[in-house]
Amino acid sequence: MAKIGFCAISGSGMSALAQISKYQGNDVYGSDRSFDQGKDQKNKQALAELGIKIYPQDGSMLDKDFSVLYASTAVEDTIPDIKRAHELNIPIKRRSDLLADIFASYKKRIAVGGTSGKSTVTAMIGYILDKVGLKPLVINGALLKNYENQKGIPNVILNHGDYCVIEADESDGSIEKYTPSVSVINNITLDHKSIEELQTIFKNFASKAELGAIINKDCNNSKILEKANSNILTFSIKDSTADFYASNITPIADGTTYTYQNQTYKLNLIGAFNIANAMCAAACCSLLGIDGKTSCEILQTFLGTKRRLEVLGQARQITVIDDFAHNPDKVNASISALKSYPGRLIIMFQPHGFSPMRLMGKEIMDNFAKHLDKEDILLIPEIFFAGGTVKKDISSKDLVEHAKSQSLNALYFATRDELKEHILKIAEPNDRIVLMGARDNSITTMGYELLERL
């Protein structure tokens, strides 16, 4: 039994790996500045209930008996835990190193990549494999709604089978550490890197897959990958020549219906993009011996993941929705899905990071402009900044100015508290309040505060 530490343990990736390490019989410790600030207390309690020992992030957690300290890439060298690890000569490794080691230890390895939809597709594949009895270990970047009643944080499905399903992140280069049995590329769109860089990364990712790779036939940027592996399966909601094709996609009150191989199925999620995600998952599972119709049947009881167009509740006939959309493709998919239902949209978009907004902020605004009507309202607080040394040469004011140039009804707010008060002042029955943004649990908290005050 090894003594292992996790610095920044509350993050979705780190908390998943900490739980797996505990499940494997290790003595697990963790710290997080969010816990020290009184945030993420639900995560703190869930980890503690598993027997993971939580310490302040002041260096007191570590002693010379630790085998390793795993640290998030977001953690600076000035953090006391990192400094203490150096003093004690404790090896410091990245989250991606542990994930790669766990992944490599399994016989059947499914890695899900792509700019958008990774968490949902990973969850779908894991759910299908679990329901057919293959006992997969599933490591996800989002919380799995079908597994909310399990002990711990539900971003993992803990099993001792031959299968491991993970999200493969291209943004930090960790995708290159994996040798999958099946490589899944859901799509390639602008996010942290240029399209050319992403195509090179995903071509290599697809070529390494032993059983084959899954490619989105509706994504123009993915066409370069169609010969990257000798066994490529395609999926589509537009092209009937794809190996896995869904048609007759119809929004209904509590989800979406679609046709696959002349049979109609229901998915408890909104948006055509989620039907594409279902086809992607079915294509992947077919390489593992599961018939497409069986996958579609199982997905009828799939509840989705948290913060992906998740309805938090309703008050005074006003619906509050929480969503992870933070790049052009995700915004496009989410707004397109929301506009297939009636009701004015009041949207808070929380920009995340100065560099990403410099790269894609205007394109995000353009995608809002593509779908929103004159009565819809876009509210943008100042850019969320997690810390570190960066060039702060862009503001949310710049995004609002660009949005207005596209005839959007957009407003800037210096703080989220001011924005929240404005929402409460203008919200009316039948409105939908949508809170969008990534890597910030306080967005969900704000959603519940709005519901309470409404």
Describe this structure in words.
The protein is of the alpha/beta class. It contains 14 helices and 22 strands. The protein has helices spanning 12-23, 33-36, 41-49, 80-87, 95-104, 118-131, 195-207, 272-286, 292-298, 328-338, 354-371, 396-405, 416-426, 442-453, and strands at residues 3-7, 27-31, 53-55, 68-71, 92-94, 108-113, 137-139, 156-157, 163-167, 182-185, 212-216, 232-236, 244-245, 247-252, 255-260, 263-267, 310-315, 318-323, 345-349, 377-381, 410-413, 432-436. α7 (195-207) links the parallel β10 (182-185) and β11 (212-216). It starts with a strand and ends with a helix. The model has no long low-confidence stretch (mean pLDDT 92).
Strand-helix topology:
Elements lengths: L2 E5 L4 H12 L3 E5 L1 H4 L4 H9 L3 E3 L12 E4 L8 H8 L4 E3 H10 L3 E6 L4 H14 L5 E3 L16 E2 L5 E5 L14 E4 L9 H13 L4 E5 L15 E5 L7 E2 L1 E6 L2 E6 L2 E5 L4 H15 L5 H7 L11 E6 L2 E6 L4 H11 L6 E5 L4 H18 L5 E5 L14 H10 L4 E4 L2 H11 L5 E5 L5 H12 L1
Parallel strand pairs: 1-2, 1-4, 2-3, 4-5, 6-9, 6-10, 7-9, 10-11, 11-12, 12-13, 18-22, 19-20, 19-22, 20-21
Antiparallel strand pairs: 7-8, 14-15, 15-16, 17-18
Helix pairs in contact: 6-8, 8-9, 10-11, 11-12
